[in-house]
Amino acid sequence: MAKVVAVVNQKGGVGKTTTAVNLAASLAYYGKKILLIDADAQGNATTALGVDPGEGATVFDLLIDDLPITDAICGATTPGLFLAPGGVSLAGADLALAERENRALCLRRSIFPVYEEYDFILIDCPPSLGLLTINALAASHSLLIPCQCEFFSLEGLVQLTRTVEQVQSHYHPALTIEGIVLTMVTRRLKLTRQVEEEIAKHFPGKLFETKIPRNVRLSEAPSYGKPALAYDRHAKGSRAYLKLAKELLERTQPPDPALYAEQAPYGGETDDVSHETIPDQAPEATPEPEGGEEECQNEED
To answer: Mind listing the pLDDT tens digit for each residue in 222-231?
Structure first.
């Protein structure tokens, strides 16, 4: 039974896709079977895993044409990691979804046939609060929010929580915030500490201890079609995401079985939401990279 987690932040440039890709790869490193769903029209998570978003079926085909998800899933270079590709066709998904009944439940319905085949299903959401994001939230047990250390990001968190409340009200009362992870952290800046304190005050218990540093290897890896862990597993960014994956495994709660107890309906009332298992050890064949935990906080590579 999979834990479905939406990686979401409607503000662009906060490390959302970087987090989705590298967290997925890190969870696979710890022996978990992972499906990453790229629900973003930019298709960056798809290209970051070495898959051409212009070839084959995409998430758009699942949502609009009811294509079985098994016809879209492809393997990645990382063992245990699988991908449902995104791409430019998703740019028209909000408009196409608006014409469908139960439009917020299309992604949940697509996931249903493979729900029990994975340990985690991560959804890389678009940087917006449109119907694609609402579909991702309605299909998820929880959401993980990457947040850059800027005050604009704090404003975005307020907007996002309002959307979460709408989804809870209409589709999924048990939807929770899994946690907030600070990204592109530069420890020497006073602003970093201020933002961290504000998030901890307004979202008590939700801030991950792991901080993702600015790291050139995280930026380079997608151009090679690899997660950072496969590109340079000793880089500070790679070790930080391994630490985040381990923290997620330690703190996550078992998924609510009621969410996927039955397949989401195809027909029904019009939607009202606005458009706005801890591993014993890492696999012995791939020992955890060397380096102390404190090094993950440095911003240099």
So the answer is: 999 999 999 9
- Distance in angstroms (rounded) separating the CA atoms of residues 296 and 234: 10
Residues 6+ apart with CB under 8 A from 130: 94, 275, 276
Domain 3-264+278-297 top-level CATH class: alpha beta
Measured CA to CA, the distance from residue 272 to residue 184 in angstroms comes to 36
Are 6 and 59 in contact by the 8 Å Cβ rule? The answer is no
Q: Kindly report the pTM of this predicted structure.
A: 0.86
Residue 290 half-sphere exposure toward CB, CA atoms < 13 A: 0
- How far is it, in rounded angstroms, from Cα 257 to Cα 2? 9
Q: Which residue ranges make up each domain of the chain?
A: 3-264+278-297
Q: How far apart are CA 76 and CA 49, in angstroms?
A: 6
| Inter-residue contact 192 to 186 (CB < 8 Å) | yes
Q: Are 35 and 75 within 8 A, CB to CB? A: no
Q: How many residues does the chain have?
A: 301
151-170 helix and 190-202 helix, angle to the nearest 10 degrees: 20
Beta-carbon contacts of residue 95 (< 8 Å; ≥ 6 apart): none
